[in-house]
Task: structure prediction
Amino acid sequence: MRIDILTVVPELLESPLNHSIIKRAKAKGLVEIYIHNIRDYGKGNYHQVDDYAFGGDAGMVMMIEPVYTLISKLCEERKYDEIIYTSPDGEILNQGIANELSLMENIIILCGHYKGIDHRIREHLITREISIGDYVLSGGEIPAAAICDAVIRLIPGAISDETSALSDSFQDGLLAPPTYTRPKEFNGWTVPEVLLSGNLAAIKKWQDEQALERTKALRPELLEERES
Ligand code: SAH
Result:
């Protein structure tokens, strides 16, 4: 899979995309991530990428030209399955969307900044808009990193224990059961006996019950979606 991220603040993406599972997935050749600085495509001495909003609203708006030049260049080089814009009014990222994107070959993620982007980019160049929740961040870089992380860990081979991603919350429409590790007792706080029993069938049964109970208690609407 190839992911091209378009940003005016590439520095914001350095750390989140260069450690842990994403780092290993890149090293194994499962994913290639290219970060493009939109400013390189801005005109003039200052490589201008933003300008005042028409209509006199406060705040700067990302200009269409540099983004158009960059997206056109990428699209000449290969076919993209999706050109995503991170936006607070987009569809809210969930495990289903992450699963869908993890099957794609090439995607572009455009990060907005300032007051947002010239709406013509959204009307003519973008194929999908994704939000990471009902709140406003300063830029699309953290949302882009969240999308990459959610998607890349689903690519087969990215996580060493193949079943691990499958048993995560939401993957089967349920929240994950609680997990524990050594020591067996800390401060007098113990671990559920069944997990220490070695009885795999009993452990599985307990985990399934816990997953169901936690979902019922914390996110009952997930159960309704699961049944429909
Ligand atoms: N004026 C815009 C917000 C601009 S915030 C509005 O009211 O909708 C600047 C940029 O941050 C946006 O262009 C978008 O790319 C990104 N962003 C902010 N919050 C986000 C969220 N919840 N999900 C995805 N992207 C977000």
About this structure: The pocket of S-adenosyl-L-homocysteine is lined by residues 86-89, 111-113, 115-117, 131-133, 135-137, 139-140, 143 (CB under 6 Å). The longest strand covers residues 82-92. The CA atoms of residues 17 and 58 lie 33 Å apart.
